[in-house]
Amino acid sequence: MANQAGARGQLMAFFAYNLTSAKLVTKLSRYVLLFIAAAALSVCFTEAQARKSPVFESRVAAAPNPDELLAEVYQHLAANELQAAQTKVDQLIAAYPLFQLAHLIRGDLLLMHSRPVSSFGGGAGASADKLKDMRDEATARIKAYRERPAADLVPSPVLQLRDDQKQVLVIDAVKARLYLYENSGGQLKLLSDHYISHGKFGLNKIKEGDQRTPVGVYYITSRLSGSKLPDFYGPGALPLNYPNEWDKVNGRSGSGIWLHGMPSTSFSRPPFASDGCVVLTNFDFMKISGLIDIGKTPVIISEHLEFITRAQWSADKQLASNLLEEWRRDMESRNANRIFANYSRNFKTMQAEDLNTWFARQRQIWELGSTPLIQLKDVTQFRYPGKDEIIVSTFTQETQAGKSHSSIRKRQYWLKEAGKWRIIYEAAL
Q1: Is residue 377 located within the same domain as residue 395?
Q2: Do the strands 278-279 and 258-260 form a parallel or antiparallel pair, or are they unpaired?
Q3: Residue 301: CATH number of its domain
Q4: pTM, whole model, 2 decimals?
Q5: Cα 60 to the chain's mean position, in Å?
Q6: How many of the other CB atoms lie within 10 Å of CB of 120?
Q7: Which residues contact 130 (CB under 8 A, 6 or more apart)?
C-alpha cells in the first residue's frame, strides 16, 4: 500500500502539471516494452488498410474521447483507485492501440503493484526527450479538456459568417487545440474540440522551411485523399490558402500548410512537432474532414484564443458591422474627403502602391459614373489574430449606377491605430 501511495503521488504530481524533471529510472521494463511493441505490430498493417474503408469510418464515429478517458484516469488516481485507473487506460488502449502515452501510463500503473515509480514513465526506459514529448502531450490534452469553453462563450475572432458557411475551425496553438463550431442561424455552437500538433519552432511563419505555423485567417482550398498521398499524411489532407493576401503584403512566404492526419504506424505527435502544418490524429481528421466545405470553411489560427460572452460578441460584431456600413455610405456619397477618411496613411497594395497613388486611381473610376447605389452582401468578418487589432471583412459589393450594374467580391483589412479604425489593405478577390 505504501508503494502504491508513493507511486500515485508521483503520477498525480505529473497530472497536476508539476512537471519538474526527476531522475529517470534507467532499467528497462521488458514487460512494458514488449506490450507496446506487440500492440504496435498488431495494428500497423491493419490500420493502414482500414482507414481506406467504410469500416474505419464507423470506428471513427464510435471512438471514445481520448482526453476524457485521460481525465478519468487522473480522477481515479486522485482517489487512490489504481485498479479503476488501469481499467480506463485499458479502454484507451483498446480504442487506440497506437497511443504511446496510454501505454506509458499503463506501464507505470502495472509497476506500482510491485515497486514505487519515481517519475512519469519510470518503467519504460525511454529517452528523456521522448518522455518530455509525452509529458507535453498529456499536459496539453488534459489542460484543454479541463478548460473546455462553456456553451455560453464564443471565440472572439469569429464575428460574422455567411449563411452558407456552416462550420468554422478555430485553433488555439498554445493549448494545442482545434475547436469545431457550427454556424446555426448566425449563432456559434461548439460541436467538438481536438488535440493538434503544430510547427516545431512555434508560430508566425515567415518563410519556406522555417518549420513554423502561420497565424491568421485562412480557407480550406481542396481535399486530398490519403490514397493519393504518402502514408505520412494519414487518411488525407486539407490544404490552406497560406500565404493569404495579408501574408503576402507583409512579406511572408512559403507554401504547403495543410491540416492532415498521422502515419498508420502512429497515433499522435507532441504539441510542437510538425514542419508547419496542423496535424490531427487520424480519427479526429476523419471527423472534421467529413464536415468542412471546400472554399467556404474558415480556419482561424491564433496563438492565444480568447473566449468571450455572447453579449461582448454581439457588441464586437456590431462594431465591425458599423465600420462597413459607414464605409458603404461614404462610397455612395462620392465625397472624396469622406471616402479618404476611411483609409490609413499606411495603406498598401500588393503592387506596393501607397494610399495617394491608389486613391487617385480609384477616384478616377468613381467620377466617371453617376451617383451609385451600393449594397454589401454575403459578409464575413473576423478579428485577425496577432499583435495588432485588425478586423478582416469580406463581402460582395453590388453597385447600381444608372443603367450600369457591377458585382465584385472584396476583402478589407481594418487596423485600429490611435484609437481609430481605418482600412490598411483592400483588394478584389
Answers
A1: yes
A2: parallel
A3: 2.40.440.10
A4: 0.87
A5: 20
A6: 24
A7: none
Same domain? For 211 and 301 the reply is yes
Q: How far apart are CA 428 and CA 222, in angstroms?
A: 21
Helix axes of 30-50 and 54-62: crossing angle, nearest 10 degrees: 130
Q: What is the DSSP string of 3-30?
A: HHHHHHHHHHHHHTT-----PPP-S--H
317 and 417 both lie in a single domain: yes
Nearest Cα to 255, choosing from 218, 230, 201?
218
d(CA 74, CA 53): 35
Q: Compute the distance between CA of residue 60 and CA of residue 62 in angstroms, rounded to an integer.
A: 6
Residue whose cell numbers read 503521488:
9
Whichever domain contains 420, its CATH number is: 3.10.450.50
State how many domains the chain has: 3
- The DSSP result for 290-309, as a single string, is TT--TTT-EEEEESS--EEE
**Gap between the Cα atoms of 23 and 396, Å rounded:** 61
Q: 272 and 325, same structural domain?
A: no
Own/partner long-range contacts of 118-122 (Cβ < 8 Å, ≥24 apart): 118/10, 118/22, 118/23, 118/25, 119/10, 119/22, 119/23, 119/24, 119/25, 120/10, 120/11, 120/14, 120/19, 120/22, 121/24, 122/10, 122/24, 122/25
Query: Hey, what amino acid is at 385?
Result: P
pLDDT tens-digit profile of 329-363? 999 999 999 999 999 999 989 988 999 999 999 88
Enumerate the H helices of 79-127 as residue ranges. Answer: 82-95, 100-112
Judging by DSSP bridges, how do beta strands 167-172 and 158-160 pair with one another? Answer: unpaired
**In terms of domains, do 157 and 300 share one?**
yes
185 close to 162: Cβ distance less than 8 angstroms: no
243 three-state secondary structure: coil
Q: Please write the tens of the pLDDT for every residue from 219-270.
A: 999 999 999 999 999 999 999 999 999 999 999 999 999 999 999 999 999 9
Residues 64 and 95: beta-carbon distance below 8 Å:
yes
Residues 161 and 298 in one domain: yes
Locate all alpha helices (DSSP H) within 353-395, ordered by sequence.
355-366
Tell which of 128, 146, 164 closes a domain.
146
- Residue holding cell 481542396? 222
Whether residue 7 is found in the same domain as residue 131: yes
Range of the domain at 412: 309-428
- The angle formed by the CA atoms of residues 190, 193 and 197, to the nearest 5 degrees, is 145
**What does each C-alpha distance from 194 to 81, 178, 406, 411 come to in angstroms?**
28, 5, 43, 30
